[in-house]
User: Fold these one by one.
Assistant:
Number 1:
Amino acid sequence: MAARRVAIIGAGASGLCALKCCLDEGLEPTCFERSKDIGGLWRFEERPEDGRASIYRSVIINTSKEMMCFSDFPIPDDFPNYMHNSKIMEYFRMYARRFDLLRHIRFRTSVCRVSKRPDFASSGQWEVLTESEGKREAAVFDAVLVCSGHHTDAHLPLGSFPGLEKFEGWYLHSRDYKSPQPFLGKRVVVVGIGNSGIDIAVELSHAAKQVCWESSRGWDPRGHRSSPPSPVGSPPSSTWPQAPSLWGWPLWSHKLCWIPCTWSTAGAQPRLGMLPCHHLSSPSFQVFLSTRRGSWVMHRVAKSGYPFDFSYISRFTQLLQNLLPPHIISFFLERELNARFDHTLYGLKPKHRVLDQHPTINDDLPNRIISGRVRMKPNVQEFTETSAIFEDGTKEDIDAVVFATGYSFSFPFLEGCVKVVENQIPLYKFVFPPDLEKPTLAFIGLIQPLGAIMPISELQCRWATRVFKGLQGLPPPADMLAEITQTKQRMAERYVKSQRHTIQVDYIPYMDELACQLGVKPSLLTLFLTDPKLAVEVAFGPCTPYQYRLRGPGAWAGARAAILTQQQRVVRALQPRAHGRHARSSAAPHTLTVLFSIAMIAAALLYVSLSP
């Protein structure tokens, strides 16, 4: 029997693990990627590409490497614990080479339409129409994995900001933001206090730190002054600035600071020198961070210096969350966050509790606020030609606006198979449409987790591919719809109403739900009876992705060793020369194992009884 053919849409993080999972199950995958390379969201490009997620140059991931890696491919121990986007791309390329994934990807190929075959009710097959270099091609596939993500369509609610149409400055969505250079010396309002909004505000607040001189002449390293052609231009009133630039740095205004550059005149060789770049004096420069309701701001580094998620996302802490009322958990977590800096004092405290929103993570914001480089503001009430008026009645002259207002998602190529309404889509466990005659369509990575997304995407793929093969079944449509309704209701009761809270999941509970479907959830009781050392690490240490490779389909022989050495990889990244130094273990020492035995049995039994 020929292998079942699977179409994968997108070659980002979800698309790569989808390819591997298909190969692991003996399926025949073809991945369609509209751009020239893998990486999706995490591949930085100077200019945003239509239909593809876009990041700014300085982006660093908010989840640590041990928590975000694919479950059978640990990130090298010398990689930093929180990785820059370039390091994430390096890891993706290593993953693709290790499992020989690139030969299954068709680059520069857009998916135009995915439609049911006439005999779908019996075959479950799809017709996929693609376009590459102006040529269209149709092919039949037995299943489809949609891995295009949910950060492609900018949500830009311009109608919510009266007067923006007459604003003489320029504005853009955070999707179009790439670096702070175009904003040198400008007074900028950043609208939105999610992770992108805070990151951009903090980065922009450093833009006035260059030393400036008012001058109109360049300097060449040989000691001679020169006069290159004037770089001065004017920014447009909206969208991304198109002023003349050097090395991608737009230049305008009357006050100048020096930047390195090369230039040449007719008949002469290019010369290295310094060129004046616009820059208002420091007192004029200001970043305003505007928010409707404030936010609790978490940080990457825990008290011990270990990554925050590595220290707090564990099965033991999840058990405590299950046992204690949410307002008690919120109280302790808010007290912890306020111990670092008082959110009320800094104008950040929201009316909602900390667990009622997706976490906002930034280590630098309080320093920028206390130094006056970032000023907190309420929501923008309206814009004038040259200023923003805020809801507290204050008015500030501004030059530019960055809207960090999130994203919406849609799947226009799916021709009525699914319908997205207000960023909501009915999917069983956020993966399968419940009303298809055959379960041969799955969405991967269409979630917003309180934790890392890569391991979740991978576990979704492992489950979906086994469903495609007929090795796993789904409940009746009525049962799936009932669960979807219950999940939607729970989210509405818990979270602040927002575009970002329609696909929200908690990391360990959701991973365990998927693992139960697949049969790979670790058994703490069995581990305690057979491997106490590993059991302690699984129960009390960080819930790393390797735990879902210990047993069941797709079990990995290296999972145990990866769990027991995860602390060492964290330390090695911080102390690259300390190869012989032992890492602090998150598990109990061997001499105390017996003392923990009774407590562990009780905790394991209680955990199992409370888990899905």
Number 2:
Amino acid sequence: MKKYKSGWEKEKSRREAEAKLKKVVAGSKKVTDFFDVVSEPKSNIAETTSSRPNATALRPSTSTSSDCIAEPHINIVSSEPNLKTKSSNVAEDETHGVKETIQHDMDVRCWGGISDQLRDYCCQIGSLEFQHLDADFSTSETCITGDKFKRRCSKSLFWREQLNGEIVKREWLCYSPSTKKLYCFFCKLFASDSEKIMLPLASVGYGDWKHAPRDLARHESSNKHLSYLSTYFFRRAKKGSICKDLEEQKESDRKYWCKVLARVLSVIKFLSSRGLAFRGSSERVGSPQNGNFLGILELLAEYDTFLAEHNQKRVNKGKGHVSYFSSTVCEEFIDAIATKVLNIIISEIKQAKYYSVSVDSTPDIANVDQLTIIFRYVLPDGPVERFVKFMPTRGHTGRQLADILLEFIEYNGISLKDLRGQSYDNAANMSGKYKASTHRWNLLVDALKPLKCPTIKPLSDTRWEARYDALHALRKGYQAVLQVLTAISDDNDETYQTKETARGFVSSMKKLETGILVVVWSCIMERFHKTSQALQDSKMTLNKATNLLQGLQNFIQLLRPQFQTFEGRGQALSGCHHYTEEISRKKRRKVGLDSEGESEDTSLDPSSRFKVDSYLPIIDQILSSMKTRLEAYDGLQRKFSFLIELNTMSNCKIEASAKSLLQYYPDDLEESLPQEMIHFSTLIKQHHFNSECKEIQMFKFINENEFAHAFPNVSVVFKLYLCLMISNCSGERSFSALKRVKNHLRSSMSQKRLNSLAILCIENDILQKIDTDDIIKSFALSKSRKCVI
């Protein structure tokens, strides 16, 4: 049962808090500790009240100046107090009168006899407190004889312009609201009484507004003023200042928290770059359920004495004790680092100017359709592909995808006019998971292990690589798999359904047709697998990709007359030399009376029938699909194919190719492109380039030798060419990271956190290179406390 405080208990707590506050205030140093507060005669008080309401009358205890008007005066205590500890003169001041906090900024005009105590105090707080820049200067208006208009003090007098145009503030200049005149802070503070007679800015004040700029410039360059300025800085450095002590304390706190946050940030970078979870069910250091973030910090503390001391002093202390190990600080850092990585990518895109985009989608663990956006652009070292964001989408129509993409481009200030390539694809859901009992699976693994065969895998609907792995494993372990299935079909401990399924697999694997198909598809998929791996390189160029696909097409074309070879391999693999049609009973076809011209001899034999009905359709369908794929590259490839042959082409062909390219990009290229291309071709003929990624090497050659100013249009051509999107492999990789970052244990993750963790995981190469010191410094500076000295 929860207990609530009674009214008396609440009143008691309130009184205790007030008493504690009064005790703290009583022990604090006040400005009035330096002054004796006495009352002026009533006539003077009335005058003061009429000119400055609510002012306290202060009068110097040593002497009274004849030119002093009815204003508060300062009585300087001769003894020097200790500014950092309680002084004995506090009790002494209390006997002279009631202490009051000065409600108005102090007026330098009110300084009478100046003691060392006042000088030390003024050196500590500085001159800015006495300048009164927020005063009403309109009350200082005076009419000088011979002038047609009135003049007054202005804020412009507090600044001076140097010969180089720099504006410097006159921190020594102070305005007196009581006399409406200007004073020199340093001269007023350190000049002797005899010297003040010759210095109006140190005695009666200065009010000649007509000649103020001239006289103030003369004063600040005078020897007396400079000597008092040196005295001020020497005394300030010797005694220290309140502001300086506060800054030193703040700097000390900042350095301490920078050390703590550097370790926190390292753990965040480690976890986010690998897509690992951060938090557990507990946020207490030492708990086994506190998650990876706090767990790694505990591990580091075992070898880091600084972190160990921090854990002992500040961790697990409850509210009011700052440790910066909380989930809130962790999330702030994740968001800050992810924002910085995204800003780096956006700035690179803007600097590269030309770019291409790839858009693809897949459902996450929460059944939210996530649209991934990939940018491809060209850096001085070559083309790169970068992930920027996951965006939830409800459809896959062209307009919906375009609206999402345009929204991102417009929000980040990227020029849509520089978009030079687009790639769109929709990912299908994964299905067809292989299921088997643990016992049957162990039997299969044990049979394949001595043969060092790959593990059997299910087919994939989307990934060609997974299909190749499944076929490769099946072909390598064909006989071992057949033996295990035979053993399962003969095992009386298995269920009837399991045994029948195994018998069906055994019957299929013993057919010649199955052996031929496994051999054929294994050969085809092996070449597709190698080509796909080559195309997945982010630095892949259009010419190289087209050559790879054309080579693969030619390879498939060469397989058409090789059926006999695959038939022999299928017989060796399956152990069967006859087709199913030959083994089974041959069906006789009924011949009608009107079909005299037909003969059974015209029918195909089983081998030819399988070739016509199965083998050739497979080859033809693959060739048809590849032809469609190559047609998508053919148009672009013809525009830029001459780049790879620049050092061998004649000038006429180079000029014709450049003019043709100029027609496609009239807004990006100038009319001088053909001449630049011919000139550039003569230059690269003297330089040897490797056949591997020759276009990228030529682009690097331009940048490394700073030839971009000599061949600006050639540089633009290479940027347009290299920024073209070749495949959507980067989008598929982002989906793999999505599965790791947002899994079934983190299915309720917000979209903002998902994007932050995804970009840190996918673009971890940028994460490792960025300088996070500015993030740590700004965070530590904003969190550091100003402690009372």
